[in-house]
Amino acid sequence: MYGNFITLTNLSGKDIKKIIKYRLEPLYVSVHSLDPDLRSIIFRNKDNLRGLSNLKILDDANIKTNIQIVLVPGLNDGRNLIETLNGLVSDYKNIISIGIVPVGITRYNKCQILKPFSCEETNYTLDIVDDFNRNYYNARRQKKVFLSDEFYIMAERDFPSYKSYGDLCQIENGIGKSADFLYRVRTSIKELSRNLHLFSHYRQKSLIVSSEYGAAVLEKAFEDIAKGVCVHEPDKSITAARILTVYNNFLGGNIKVTGLLSGTDIIYSLRKIDTSKYDNIFIPDSIFNSEGFTIDNLSRDNIMESCNNIFLVDEGGESFIRCITGANI
C-alpha cells in the first residue's frame, strides 16, 4: 500500500485491522469527491462509499493519509470541489495533505464525460484553492491543499514558493516538483556565483530533451540562470544550451509531462534535427520505469543508440546545472 494511491473500496475488516495494528502509514488515498452520486460516476463501483467508511475508521484510529483528487471539469470541480475540501478538513483529522491533479486524457479516450481544462476553468480552480488555503492550515501552520504543477503551467502562473510545499509529501504525484527543481537550480546558481572556476564547459552546445510541460519549467530555469550567473560574469553565457520539446504523439490528448514521453516520440524528434552540432544531448531518465523501459517498451540501449552523445540524467535541479555548465557542484 505504500507509495500508491488506493481507493479503500475493496478492503476487508481484516485489512483495516492490520493497517491499524501495524501502523501502515501514511496511506495515499484517492477520494475525488464526497458526493455519493458523483462517486458512482467516477468509480463505477457500487461499493465506492465503502471507501469513505474505511477512511473514517482509519482516521479515527489516527492513521495518517495523503489524499488525491483527480479533477474532471464539469464533474467534480467548482462547487463540488469546495464541498469536498470542506468535508475532508472538517470530518477527517489525520489528513496530511490533499493533492489535486487534472484528469489525464489520451487520444484513445472514448468517454464523453472527460474533457481537458479550459483556461477559465484552470484559473477558477486555482482561485478556489488559494481561497481555501487562506482559511485552513495543518498543525504547523502550513497549507494543506495543493494543486499539481500542470495547473500553474496551464494558467501561465508562477509556481508557489518552495517553502509553501512543506515536506513535499506528494512530489511523486507531480505536486511541488517544479518548485523543488527551480529552488535547487537557484541554489546551484548561488554556488556557481561564488565559485566561477567550476563553470568548465559552458561553451559546449547542449540539447536538453523535454516534454511540453517540462520545457515550460526549463524556460523558467534558464531565466533564473540568466539573472544569476551571467550577472556576475557576463561572458559566461549558456546560450549554447537549447531545449528540444517533444510532443506526446504516442498518448496524445493532454498528456504533456516528461515521465510519460515515449521512446518513439523522442527518437522521431531527434531525427528531425541535426544532432551532430550538439556536443551533448541530455535525456531525462524519468522516461524509464523501474525495469528500464519507456512507456512504449523501448530500452535504455534503444534510446542511447538512436544518435551520438546521448546522456541520461535525472531531473534534479543540480543535475540540470551540471549538464549545461559542466560545473562540479
Summary tags:
single chain; 329 residues; alpha/beta; TIM Barrel; five-stranded parallel β-sheet; four-stranded parallel β-sheet; 11 helices; globular
Polypeptide structure, described:
By secondary structure, the protein is an alpha/beta fold. Helix content is 39%, strand content 13%. It has helices at residues 13-21, 36-43, 48-60, 78-91, 119-133, 149-155, 177-194, 212-232, 263-271, 300-304, 317-325; strands at 5-6, 27-30, 65-71, 95-102, 145-147, 206-210, 241-245, 280-284, 310-313. A five-stranded parallel beta sheet has the order 1-2-3-4-5. It has a four-stranded parallel beta sheet with strand order 7-6-8-9, sandwiched between helices. Helix 5 (119-133) links the parallel strand 4 and strand 5 (145-147). It is globular and about 60 Å long.
Blueprint of the fold:
Layout: E1 5-6, H1 13-21, E2 27-30, H2 36-43, H3 48-60, E3 65-71, H4 78-91, E4 95-102, H5 119-133, E5 145-147, H6 149-155, H7 177-194, E6 206-210, H8 212-232, E7 241-245, H9 263-271, E8 280-284, H10 300-304, E9 310-313, H11 317-325
Short description:
This protein is of the alpha/beta class and 329 residues long.
Strand percent estimate: 5-15%
- Adjacency order of strands in the biggest sheet: 1-2-3-4-5
Q: What is the CATH topology classification name of the largest domain?
A: TIM Barrel
Superfamily at the CATH H level of the largest domain? Aldolase class I
First CA to last CA: what distance? 36 Å
Number of domains: 2
The percent of residues in helical segments reads: 25-40%
Overall number of strands: 9
Mean pLDDT: 90
Number of helices: 11
CATH uppermost class of the largest domain: Alpha Beta
Uncertain spans: none
- The coarse silhouette is globular
Over the alpha carbons, how many angstroms does the gyration radius reach? 22 Å
CATH-level-2 architecture of the largest domain = Alpha-Beta Barrel
Major β-sheet profile: 5 strands, parallel
What is the N-to-C succession of helices and strands? EHEHHEHEHEHHEHEHEHEH
Category by helix and strand content: alpha/beta
